[in-house]
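Anyone up for a design puzzle?
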């Protein structure tokens, strides 16, 4: 397989949009030197680099800055877009309190741990194993507040359910049936099920960012590995999945690169720069 798709025009690319975890960020939670170099080459070629992640802004921002990204960062599955340099929030579409309470009741009844996000901080009922695991993954502190229903009186940017992959699959089916059309529901990683305000997605946020940058989304190459990346790949001119990613990407990705451990995205970015006039 060649590094770039047949018929693809490297000279037409104005931006690349990249998910973090398992797309360009491996389980070590450290970028490879090859990826950092490749993103630097892309930016030097005049191509915007955009980070599009389910992570909190506070968790995603250090990674964006490490890559030298200056474009607005898409985080919380697109519920929040913020400037990586100034920290300014440019777009925020939180889940209203009534819907959040209904989600919390449903998830609690099913016996799962939840993360709730307000003011770019992570809140949980108790610091159990799931909370500590997630906080370590995000490299942030989790704040225990007791009963979430009693505590939450403000809109929440998103809710994340943490659990075993197969159990979350069953929960996802039930939640989608109950909240059909009333909430964004998708897995970001096998052990994380995410819920947000309806209409929220990385794809909608990419349209917003492209508008600010004066870029046609058709001139964007987007990379992802999870079910939460479907809309991102759909919104871009070229959607690229990472080997081993969620099966849902099979219907929207026009190209596939090797896994994050094989620096698949870095290889594509290098080929992109090398193929431009």
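Challenge accepted. My sequence:
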């Amino acid at each position: 397989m060649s590094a770039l798709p047949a018929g693809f025009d490297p000279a037409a690319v104005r931006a690349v949009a990249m998910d973090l975890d398992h797309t360009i960020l491996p389980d070590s939670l450290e970028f490879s030197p090859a990826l950092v170099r490749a993103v630097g080459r892309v930016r030097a070629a005049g191509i915007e680099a955009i980070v599009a992640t389910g992570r909190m802004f506070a968790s995603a921002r250090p990674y964006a800055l490490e890559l030298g990204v200056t474009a607005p960062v898409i985080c919380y599955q697109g519920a929040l877009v913020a400037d990586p340099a100034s920290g300014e929030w440019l777009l925020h579409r939180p889940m209203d309190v009534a819907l959040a309470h209904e989600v919390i009741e449903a998830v609690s009844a099913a016996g799962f741990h939840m993360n709730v996000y307000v003011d770019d901080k992570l809140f949980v009922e108790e610091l159990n194993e799931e909370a500590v695991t997630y906080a370590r993954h995000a490299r942030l502190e989790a704040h225990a507040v007791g009963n979430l229903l009693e505590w939450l009186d403000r809109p929440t940017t998103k809710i994340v359910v943490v659990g075993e992959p197969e159990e979350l699959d069953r929960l996802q089916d039930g939640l989608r049936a109950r909240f059909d059309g009333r909430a964004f529901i998708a897995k970001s990683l096998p052990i994380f099920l995410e819920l947000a305000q309806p209409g929220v997605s990385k794809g909608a946020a990419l349209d917003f960012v492209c508008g600010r940058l004066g870029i046609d989304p058709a001139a964007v190459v987007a990379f992802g590995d999870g079910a939460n990346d479907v809309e991102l790949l759909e919104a871009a001119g070229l959607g690229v999945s990472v080997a081993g990613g969620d099966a849902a990407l099979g219907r929207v990705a026009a190209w596939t690169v090797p896994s994050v451990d094989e620096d698949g995205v870095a290889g594509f970015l290098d080929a992109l720069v090398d193929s431009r006039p």
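A detail worth pointing out: The first helix runs from residue 33 to 44.
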